[in-house]
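worker-03 picked up job from queue 'complexes'. Input manifest follows; two sequence lines, order preserved.
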Amino acid sequence: MNLPADAVTALDTFQAAAGWEQRARLLMQWGDRLPALSDVDKVEANRVHGCESQVWLVGELHDGHWQFRANSDARLIRGLVALLLARVNGLSAADLQQVNLPDWFNQLGLGRQLSPSRSNGLNAVLQRMNELAG
Amino acid sequence: MMILSPWRADFPAIAALQRQDQTYLDNAATTQKPQALLDALAHYYANGAANVHRAQHLPGAHATQAFEDSRRKAAQWLNAGDSGQIIFTHGATSALNLLAYGLEHLFQPGDEIVISALEHHANLLPWQQLAQRRDLKLLILPLDADGVIDLEAANRLIGPRTRLLAVSQLSNVIGAWQPLPALLAMAQAHQALTVIDGAQGVVHGRHDVQALGCDFYVFSSHKLYGPDGLGVLFGRNQALQQLRPWQFGGEMVLDANYHDARFRPAPLGFEAGTPPVSSVIGLGATLDYLSTLDQDAVNAHEAALHDYLLKGLEARNGIRLLGRPQVALASFTVEGVHNSDLAHLLTEQRIAVRAGHHCAMPLLKSFELAGAIRVSLALYNDSEDVERFFEALDQALEMLR
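worker-03 finished. Artifact:
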């Protein structure tokens, strides 16, 4: 399965990052580039629970391909969500079910963000995405 | 200015954490353990574990002896004297649940339970649920701007329908001592039972349950440098008469038939099942160790370190403290910075502090906050730990602003 173009960029950038500080700065840059959500999307039904910050996730199938929109009021989780969308947007329903998302974050050097004691909410976002993708 | 802890080397985990470059400042959640405790646990398991209060054999006698010695030491630590009993539970939360179930029979619909706005969930939810079961009113004492229970409001709210007052001695979010003597006097004027959640308070300074005059005092071993899985409940003799068993089984039984049973009085009647024997023995060793320390020196060290922490926080722009912390800890937010972002960057820099609601969601909501960062100190921390936290904080804020 080929990586989406955004995912290739993310992988190249994060794998070249040296140390936590550069990774954190990159995360914030990716988060800043995430398009804002409209107020219509920022409703309770789209809220991901289990995060310290407010995170919203909306997913729609267009011609059999997933398009997710998401955002957060916290910058680093916004960056993590942006990296998630870079990996999954445009995938077919079948392809999305094949993607190993924890492995994706491991490849980016961000695997620790998924440890069970982290309450940043990335785990909750992944779970919500699974529910949406059925 | 250097503030050094002469007790740091007594806690081997601090050196281990330091080798991993971790600075541990989450002591209000749990504490590291003294070598004396590790030795006691190793000794117990290496020399013959046994159940307590049931076996006639020698290992059983040794374990029971050590177990009961710990009970005596816990009573001494609180200066309980002959005024009451020490009951071991599986945690402070467990002790508070024991009270909420074991005292339930005393309540009639419409009776009032009074707690405060700053209670940890452990001292809120058992009473909230009891109120729902028995159709009681749960009244919440408000706080003043410093995070101290407002005594004027308390005087209005504690009244003839008050059957029980349950309040924290020291807030786990605000770090402010609560005015217990005044509150207890108000409750006692109406013959209400009094429960003190000492989970944070017991760790700082020495407290005397006879002088306090409360009916029940609860604390958790693991926050007081002891093993986990163990709570301590002091109950005054008179109050214990009213407490009914909550959990059943094991050696809490006096006589059992298929269709009825009789139970032991306190303390054993409230210690159903096999108790956490090793943890009780370990707590005894911790209390022995703590008893050897110069308490005035510990208090002075903790005060100096706390002052250092507060001054450093106040010196930085945009930091908002929750209430006015007096001891042990400080919770704060930073203007324009998300709590979750700050927590992320402090974690990356290997600073172990707590972010979130600190098991006191209603309190955080009353500050209109989803969370805060809490730095909490122990007797083994030194100014270098706090300094490392400040460096990481400055670095994080530089990146986030």
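worker-03 released lock.
The interface with chain A takes residues 338-341, 343-345, 348-349, 355-356, 370-371, 395, 399-400 of chain B (CB under 8 Å).
DSSP finds 14 helices and 15 strands in chain B.
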